[in-house]
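Methods — Computational structure assignment.
A single polypeptide chain was analysed. Its primary sequence is given first, followed by the predicted tertiary structure written as structure tokens.
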Amino acid sequence: MSTPGLMMNRPLLISGILEHGAAQFGEQEIVSRETHGPLHRYTYADAAKRSRQLAHALAQLGLKAGSAVGSIAWNNHRHLEAYYAVSGSGMVMHTCNPRLHPQQLIYVINHAEDEVMLFDATFAPLVKGIAAHCPKVRAWVCLADAANTPAIEGVSVLNYEDLIATHSSDFDWPQLDENTGAALCYTSGTTGNPKGVLYSHRAIVLNATAGCMPDVLNLSTQETILPVVPMFHINAWCIPYAALVAGTKLVFPGPKLDGNSLYELMEAEQVTISAGVPTIWMGLIQHLEQNNLRFNHMKCTAVGGSAMPMALIAKFVDKYGVEVRHGWGMTETTAVATMSSLSRADRQKPAADQHAIVAKQGKAVSGIEIKIVDETGATLPRDGSAQGELMVRGQWIMERYFKAEQSALVDGWFPTGDIATIDALGTMQIRDRTKDVIKTGGEWISSIDLENAAVGHPAVAMAAVIGVKHPKWDERPLLFIVRKPGQNVEKDEILGFLTERVAKWWVPDDVVFLESLPVGGTGKVQKNDLRKEYGGVFS
């Protein structure tokens, strides 16, 4: 019989993160670009006080443990307060993606059974269109003061500042079971209705703590982090929690995510670390190049959501001196599950080899296990060449979808739908999504590798590849290109460029030039939209 440990049994709770941050780093700054007016500044201690006031206000509205509170909001300080007040009270914080189709947004609000909806004034027209279809919502609260709260025809709207103003800044957070549901996020719903993932306090606290580690986000009191990744997308990769664990200065960008706005904010607030999807970084780098600018404080950017092109990694590192860390995670993994970072030995290698290492999605974070399997479920070797479906299990991995009767696991592992390789050192690389890999004559072509190669052309701003049905080869790749401003590159030049960089049979059968690519709310290219319009049959 094993011997039990003789330690305190204290639950891992989100309220504990808030109170730790306020008690140990109370003077640390939180800077927020508002939907209205100038930058807002206050401290961890201020945020904790206002979170407690919001907890009282929600109770006064009649909400109880287990009630769901939704948000349609940007990354800002009031949204942060809701993160802590809602979950800390034993309720469920449901962050909604405002870029979902209105019918999908209505679906997730009703499926989550949200009783209160918090929204930024930007989204007032959206609220007007959906409110009547969300009968369980008893209050719509604008994240603003009275002067900046819009009137919405047919909707009774409260303003956030008046809602919390009269309440005490003292609140006794309940000592919950750490497995209590804390936050709810829905998948992007590219096929069918979005599916909900209900995170526990335990999962979020463990993920946030892991995110602080030196080879993950490397957070500390010496750093300033700006999460560009939206707070409605996997809880901004848990950065709003991780920052308070480590005492890191937090900077929120609000609604302005263009290259100029991000650069100005990063420079003004001396941001050292940021995190977002590749499309954001493409826009930022273009702004720097067009205006001959440099970073004066940025040291590291974390990227996820989709693969970052090697050419973009090289620009960040070689031209601007900013380290790139490539991560992988999904809604079902709470946030980060793997992260690439260079070891001491890696840093002795040539720059091109270093970039190739960073372009992979890296090693499993402590608390996570990964493997790849073939179509029969057999585990494939870690040799860097065998490709199979990526399976994951660990301390913050989903077991089943919200309100689902059946477990999503296969023999205790979550099937991710990603095709990957894992090498002998444990480094994982996503080769494609199972739905995006192109099957030509019985062989696989990675759409990700083709896109990365195409973006390496100096005239290409963005690229996407889909498989199009072919009468002989099953599928063939079709390439979409968005040119950089002022560039006139044509099809033959692009295909010639690729011929020198990929296998001949990988070279796309055709190129379509677009003004822009369809991008979803999390910054990912919506390949389903491209398939609907262009996914016919090659002759």
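Note: The longest helix spans residues 44-60.
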